[in-house]
Amino acid sequence: LYISALTALLEMRHRRRRRRGRRDEILFCATDCKYECIIETAQHLGWRIVSGREKDQKKSVTPENSESEICNVYWIDISNIAERMSKLRPWQRINHFPGMSNIARKNRLAQNLEKMRRGFQKEYNFYPRTWVLPLELADFRAQFDSNGRSSQFYIIKPDSGCQGRGIFLTQNFESISPLEQVVAQHYIRKPFLIDGFKFDLRLYVLVTSCKPLRVYLFRDGLVRLCTQKYLKPNPGNVAMRCMHLTNYAINRHSENFQGNETLGACDIGSKRSLRWFMDFLANEKGQRRSDALWSRMGAMVVKVILSILPTLVREYESTFNKGIRSEPKQTYNSTSCENQLDHHPQTIEGSQCFEVLGVDVIIDQALKPWLVEVNHLPSFATDSPLDSDIKARVIEQTMSIVRAKASDRYTYEREERSKAEARLYSNQFATNNLILAQETQASKVACRIEVILERHAPEKLGKINALLRKYTGREVKLLHLIEQKYLEKKTRQLPTNLQEFRQHYVGSEEHTSPNLTGTNKQPFELLNEDKLPVASCSETDSGVELEDRLLVDFERIYPVPLAARMHSDHTPNYRALKKFVFEQDEKRMRRMSCPLRQTRRSTLDSPAALPPLHRDLKDAIEQKVPWGEPPRCNGVEKSPIPRKPLPMPGEKQLLAADRLTRGFSSRQQVSAPCSLVTGDHTDLKATQDYAQRVASTVAHAKKWRRRMDDSRKRQNCQQVALQPRTFVFARTSDTLRDPHLHITNSGTGLKDTATHK
Q1: Which one, of 348, 337, 474, lies nearest residue 94 by Cα?
Q2: Nearest 10 degrees: Cα torsion 424, 429, 432, 438
Q3: CA atoms lying within 13 Å on the CB side of residue 643
Q4: 238 within 8 A of 170, measured Cβ to Cβ
Q5: Distance CA 419, CA 347 (A)
């Protein structure tokens, strides 16, 4: 007994020491990781690898306390990402963004880019004309002649395919299945060639954050060549996949495939480096054209990600802000407002998501880049020294910007416990804290209003105290109205330096990044990001400097650095693109939520339940806001503007409404008589015409029934079809004395009696 007790005590001490040591380790979950280079990089950083096999080794381990469920960093290389996303906790990191599948799937990519091209046709001309089948099958069929042939070649790709599976070229419409989920694109017939071979470029793009958006482009990459020399497509060579398809998974099985034996041999082989290609292009076409191509490829990547930015932000917040949403709602004060501007808990540093995208690009003879596809699960297999060098640098620098700490879990749990205790035991101090917060808020608002009025309306400085008394308890709204009145109209007179802007308007507080969605506009947001000077847009995020220092081989392409913007002539207007995509997303969300708002009558009684559809003050004055506080003038509620009374409907409108209520079309049809009394239908001749129309309707129904019976007999169909029924409605007239009407079923011969009301 003594020995067993001593052994148990030693095991308990050992478990405690091991548990205490694990608190100093970052756990890396490699359960869904397929590549050894990623695991080796994580071990090199000092992270402990968790494979998830302890469930099989220990029967007593539950999913809640297993190490695979409490890891700090998750790396997933399989398509089942949504399942892991649903189980993530607020202190964990993952190598994917929720919503990135909207550009990784070929049909969604085409739909999002087509939506943006409607507003910016010149900016979004970097991808071929694409049809999503079978959704756009009719439009795609119009590209062929009556025999189903076309002079243009189309490349057909499965929606969810990869590694070149299911891709083929065709000129014949009959070779395309109308039931499969595929996309059809114009085939680029004149690509740029290297030694007579067609090729594509694999760009590695790193997205470190979506709010604010930060995108980096790796300065190296892969050039993947075909293994057969290129010829223009014709019916004889469209089946040669190694000539027209640049996928590495297809060409590596070819007899002509050449591998790279050494790292220095970058100018030979079927797979080469992107850095070598840019030097080769500079020697062949000039350094200026090479730099222009590089900047255009970076701009193309940013435009693709901007097309889904509202979706990324919305899904990111809904996935990782669950703990923040569960907190009780508070009134607007200085403390709660500052907490709401931070989209993460204070214990979590940086973004919880990061993602490496593989963007495939084809260059044509005019050196114009064409987007092929976007891979959110790029391959990190290292089949050659060139692969090992490039992919190792991508993974190592990507993991270096993951700001995970071993104490994230315990810090988060400790803060959650303190919050629970504060909610449970601090009710007695709530009133004093609320009063203190309101006083602090009023003083801050007064200082900011004074600065704004001193710059734009000095004659109104004496009215600040009266305004604060009028808006007691609503100081944030007063500040918002003043900003809306003065700052939005005089943006050109604002300071051109961000530091000067902070000194004048923000004071000692740090300027936070604005909310991009536009649906939850923060009250302390003095100026939108798009209204800041161009030179200061990139310095608003504190994490940019750290990432620029760690990502040695990456180039930041969004936000565009000031030096790159000044020396480049190809920088697009990203502000206009971002504004357009958020406006379109807001309209879509408004259309989706308007029917719900109309059915919820209770929201009309509670103005704070839902935001108004029209946010402009001008619309509120014109009584266009369906709910919210009524407009006021000098503290007195304004009376609503009298609306013009609607005119009485005419005779034709009454007849059309009557036909609609009885199930007919609004237009006057032969088989749709009117039950209303009119002066034109009181004579006997009108009654006879009416009887003839009824007889012709019945005859038409019988003829239609006979045709249906004949076609059913020819098809040997044993199913019973619905019989058409023709109803004859009597109309009130002096010539029709009988108040009853016999309704005849022309299909069965049965007679029913109905009373005309």
Answers
A1: 348
A2: -30
A3: 7
A4: yes
A5: 13
| Alpha-carbon gap, residue 170 to 456, rounded angstroms | 65
From the list 242, 162, 138, the residue with the least C-alpha distance to 197 is 242
Compute the radius of gyration of the chain from its Cα atoms: 35
Please check whether residue 563 is in contact with residue 535, taking contact to mean a CB–CB distance below 8 angstroms: no
- Cα–Cα distance for residue pair 541/592, rounded to 1 Å: 33
**163 exposed, middle or buried (CB, 10 Å; 0-12, 13-18, 19+)?**
exposed
For the CA atoms of 152, 157, 159, 162, the dihedral, rounded to the nearest 10 degrees, stands at -160
Q: Which residues contact 244 (CB under 8 A, 6 or more apart)?
A: 155, 169, 187, 198, 226, 230, 233, 237, 238
Q: Which amino acid is at 661?
A: T
Q: CA nearest 197: which of 178, 234, 236, 224?
A: 224
Residue 379 CA to residue 35 CA, distance in Å, equals 8
What residue type is 618 in one-letter code?
K
Nearest to 359 by CA among 103, 46, 582, 154: 103
Is residue 197 a contact partner of residue 373, using CB atoms and an 8 Å limit?
A: no
Average pLDDT over residues 519-531: 35
**Which residue is listed with tokens 């050039």?**
223
- Strands 632-633 and 740-744, how do they pair? unpaired
Cis preceding linkage at 607, omega within 30: no
Give pLDDT, residue 587. Answer: 87
Task: Kindly tell me if the per-residue pLDDT of 104 is higher than 50.
Answer: yes
Sequence-separated (6 or more) residues with CB below 8 Å from residue 269 = 258, 259, 260, 384, 386
Contact 655, 639 (CB under 8 A): no
Strands (E), 482-620: 554-558
Closest C-alpha to 98, from 174, 207, 13, 10? 207
Strand 73-74 with 93-94, pairing: parallel
Report CA-CA distances (Å) from 433 to 326, 333, 423, 672: 21, 10, 13, 72
First-to-last alpha carbon distance for the chain, in angstroms, is 99
For 700-750, list the strands marked E by DSSP: 740-744
φ, ψ dihedrals at 193, nearest 5°? -115, 150
Q: Please give the pLDDT value at position 126.
A: 95
Note the pLDDT of residue 215: 96
- HEC profile of 655-678: HHHHHHHCCCCCCCCCCCCCCCCC
472-478, Cβ contacts within 8 angstroms, sequence gap of 24 or more: 473/438, 475/441, 475/442, 475/445, 476/332, 476/337, 476/441, 476/445, 476/523, 476/524, 477/523, 478/445, 478/449
CA distances from 141 to 114, 173, 179, 234, 491 (A): 19, 7, 14, 21, 51
Q: Residue 329 and residue 719: Cα distance in Å, rounded?
A: 60
What does the pLDDT average to over 52-67? Answer: 50
Is residue 387 within 8 A of residue 381, CB to CB? The reply is yes
Q: Which helix (H) or strand (E) holds 617?
A: helix 617-621
Question: Which structure tokens are listed for 600?
Answer: 């919820």
Whole-angstrom distance, CA of residue 255 vs CA of residue 250: 11
pLDDT single digits (tens) 147-197: 889 999 999 999 877 777 889 999 999 999 888 899 999 999 899 999 999
Q: How far, in Å, CA of 20 to CA of 265, rounded? A: 50
Distance CA 701, CA 709 (A): 12
- The closest alpha carbon to 116, from 357, 319, 387, 302, belongs to 302
- The answer to whether 278 and 290 are in contact (CB under 8 A) is yes
What would the two tokens of residue 572 be? 């697009």
How many Å apart are CA 300 and CA 574, to the nearest integer? 11
**In contact, 293 and 570? CB cutoff 8 Å:** no
The residue length of the chain stands at: 757
Residue 360 neighbours by CB under 8 Å, 6+ apart: 200, 201, 202, 203, 371, 372, 373, 374, 375
Residue pLDDT, tens place only, 370-398: 999 999 999 999 888 999 999 999 999 99
Q: Give the residue from 154, 249, 256, 236 showing the smallest Cα distance to 195.
A: 256
